[in-house]
């Protein structure tokens, strides 16, 4: 009886362990096979544990809760049908060989099932996707949908018009034709443009999947009708070389990310100017995914995107936006010292430069984020951390008596500084996540501030609490003046500085800010969006 008890006890312990080990082995083996298919496939497969809407496998037509989906063409399949789907269905291609050259056309690329909710049939104008099964068709280019019973043979070979956003899409035959022309050493690309359309303004999407609230990866799939580049996998300079294959002064770039991502892209555009590619320079629009988004706010694209505006409306806004210029500034930091052999630090400024409490908050925030990056995946958490460090500085006042440590010159004229803790040099209207710093409460006369007039606005603050008062319009900043050139001399001790949210601790030095160049940006009027949304 004792041996029998020991035996069954061991079975009760060992058997679950063996089953768990076997399941783990099978799961890891399955994951290796899935990753191998993903790596070799032309589809942009992604795996999900739960689909966001009722989904059906494109192979077996069964209802599925989890499985793989293609970010490019929209296919959805169960895990068991993944390999078969990869062999049966072609993905959307950005380059296709054409027999007709520049004036080629292409048929619709139909995918069956899982059509968008509330979509209507292009034939009968009735709603599609209403039946609880794999049904109806969708074209991956024009996004038109058709009922099973309305699908005719003529539709399968009908020319695709690319839908509402035909003027933004780069047709696959265009790139194929241009590629062949480059091989033949022909550069008269303008002859290909009539095939595309008269008012063609191709749009390239550059998305930073790591910005702010990590929405970039979701947007990669949302913008699948256009040409999208993931900036975590390809540098902007390389992606922007596509502009040299497109019509001059026609390309628009939508940057999905924070102000840092926008600056990264604008630096890559400056490299194009150095290479003599000025006529291919694109205009830049912004979809704000970062924490502050002050540049985006200044240009009318909003203080932050959280999915509240449909992707279709964003593309309409890009089509209707007006071109403007943005001043870009050179910030040169030269260290002091008799034996200083280091080269001066050189930065490019789009938004603002600062020394004092706001730079200290940014420095503490970045140090904290580098230690635990996983905690900073939400815009709300990021702002809460900024608030914490701002409150701490109100008590400690690490930057007090700044006026005794620095000298300020505006266009060569020395400015007598009052008792300050911080100095901020502005290029744009917004600062600190949505505050119009130069205006303050708006109850005092002040010169007009613009982002394209070649002038900088220089203000002072009395501390973190003063910054908070300005943000809620309870106080005005100390307006020190406007200038074309700003020179700041730090005489002693280390002080926190920042350029466009990139902070560092700086010893005695001379900071010189001069005009560098202009960037071609797109300005969007918020009133237009409100009118369209209400209608």
Automatic annotation (TrEMBL):
GO CC, any one term: membrane
Superkingdom, natural source: Eukaryota
Pathway involvement of the protein, from the record: Glycerolipid metabolism; Lipid metabolism; glycerolipid metabolism
Catalytic activity annotation: 1-hexadecanoyl-2-(5Z,8Z,11Z,14Z-eicosatetraenoyl)-sn-glycerol + ATP = 1-hexadecanoyl-2-(5Z,8Z,11Z,14Z-eicosatetraenoyl)-sn-glycero-3-phosphate + ADP + H(+); 1,2-di-(9Z-octadecenoyl)-sn-glycerol + ATP = 1,2-di-(9Z-octadecenoyl)-sn-glycero-3-phosphate + ADP + H(+); 1-octadecanoyl-2-(9Z,12Z)-octadecadienoyl-sn-glycerol + ATP = 1-octadecanoyl-2-(9Z,12Z-octadecadienoyl)-sn-glycero-3-phosphate + ADP + H(+); 1,2-di-(9Z,12Z-octadecadienoyl)-sn-glycerol + ATP = 1,2-di-(9Z,12Z-octadecadienoyl)-sn-glycero-3-phosphate + ADP + H(+)
Residues in DAGKc domain copies: 198-335
Domain spans labelled Phorbol-ester/DAG-type: 42-91, 107-160
InterPro entries with a match to the protein in the record: ATP-NAD_kinase_N, C1-like_sf, DGK, Diacylglycerol_kin_accessory, Diacylglycerol_kinase_cat_dom, NAD/diacylglycerol_kinase_sf, PKC_DAG/PE
PROSITE patterns hit by this protein: DAGK (PS50146), ZF_DAG_PE_1 (PS00479), ZF_DAG_PE_2 (PS50081)
GO MF term list: ATP binding; ATP-dependent diacylglycerol kinase activity; zinc ion binding
Family, as annotated: Belongs to the eukaryotic diacylglycerol kinase family.
Role: Membrane-bound diacylglycerol kinase that converts diacylglycerol/DAG into phosphatidic acid/phosphatidate/PA and regulates the respective levels of these two bioactive lipids. Thereby, acts as a central switch between the signaling pathways activated by these second messengers with different cellular targets and opposite effects in numerous biological processes. Also plays an important role in the biosynthesis of complex lipids.
Name recorded for this polypeptide: Diacylglycerol kinase
Natural source organism: Tauraco erythrolophus (Red-crested turaco)
Organism taxonomic ancestry: Eukaryota, Metazoa, Chordata, Craniata, Vertebrata
């Amino acid at each position: 009886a004792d041996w029998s008890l020991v035996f069954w006890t061991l079975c009760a312990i060992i058997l679950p362990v063996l089953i768990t080990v076997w399941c783990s082995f099978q799961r890891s083996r399955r994951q290796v096979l899935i990753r191998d298919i993903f790596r070799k496939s032309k589809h942009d497969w992604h795996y999900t544990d739960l689909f966001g809407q009722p989904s059906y496998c494109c192979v077996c037509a069964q209802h599925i809760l989890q499985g793989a989906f293609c970010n490019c063409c929209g296919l959805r399949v169960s895990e068991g049908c993944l390999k078969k789907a990869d062999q049966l269905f072609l993905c959307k291609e950005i380059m296709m060989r054409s027999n007709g050259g520049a004036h080629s056309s292409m048929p619709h690329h139909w995918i069956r099932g899982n059509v968008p909710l509330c979509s209507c049939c292009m034939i009968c104008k009735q709603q599609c996707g209403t039946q609880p099964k794999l049904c109806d068709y969708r074209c991956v280019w024009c996004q038109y949908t058709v009922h099973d019973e309305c699908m005719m043979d003529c539709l399968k070979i009908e020319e695709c018009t690319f839908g509402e956003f035909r003027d933004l899409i780069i047709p696959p035959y265009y790139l194929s034709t241009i590629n062949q022309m480059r091989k033949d050493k022909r550069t008269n690309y303008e002859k290909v443009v009539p095939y595309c359309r008269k008012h063609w303004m191709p749009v390239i999407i550059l998305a930073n999947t790591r910005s702010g609230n990590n929405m970039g990866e979701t947007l990669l799939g949302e913008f699948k009708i256009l040409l999208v580049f993931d900036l975590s996998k390809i540098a902007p300079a390389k992606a922007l070389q596509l502009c040299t294959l497109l019509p001059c002064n026609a390309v628009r770039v939508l940057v999905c990310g924070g102000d840092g991502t926008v600056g990264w892209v604008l630096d890559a555009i400056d490299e194009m100017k150095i290479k003599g590619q000025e006529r291919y320079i694109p205009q830049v629009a912004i979809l704000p995914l970062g924490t502050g988004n002050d540049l985006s706010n200044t240009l009318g694209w909003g203080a932050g995107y959280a999915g509240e505006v449909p992707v279709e409306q964003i593309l309409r806004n890009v089509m209707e936006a007006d071109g403007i210029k943005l001043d870009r500034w050179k910030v040169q930091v030269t260290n002091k010292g008799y034996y200083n052999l280091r080269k001066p630090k050189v930065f490019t400024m789009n938004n603002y430069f600062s020394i004092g409490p706001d730079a200290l908050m940014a420095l503490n925030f970045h140090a904290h984020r580098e230690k635990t990056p996983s905690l900073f995946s939400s815009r709300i958490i990021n702002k809460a951390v900024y608030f914490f460090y701002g409150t701490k500085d109100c008590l400690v006042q690490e930057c007090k008596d700044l006026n005794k440590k620095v000298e300020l010159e505006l266009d060569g004229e020395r400015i007598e500084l009052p008792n300050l803790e911080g100095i901020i040099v502005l290029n744009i209207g917004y600062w600190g996540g949505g505050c119009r710093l130069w205006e303050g409460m708006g109850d005092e006369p002040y010169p007009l501030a613009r982002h394209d007039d070649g002038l900088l606005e220089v203000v002072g603050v009395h501390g973190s609490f003063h910054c908070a008062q300005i943000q809620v319009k309870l106080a005005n900043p100390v307006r020190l003046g406007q200038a074309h050139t700003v020179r700041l001399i730090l005489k002693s001790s280390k002080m926190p500085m920042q350029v466009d949210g990139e902070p560092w601790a700086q010893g005695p030095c001379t900071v010189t800010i001069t005009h560098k160049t202009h960037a071609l940006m797109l300005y969007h009027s918020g009133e237009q969006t409100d009118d369209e949304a209400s209608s």
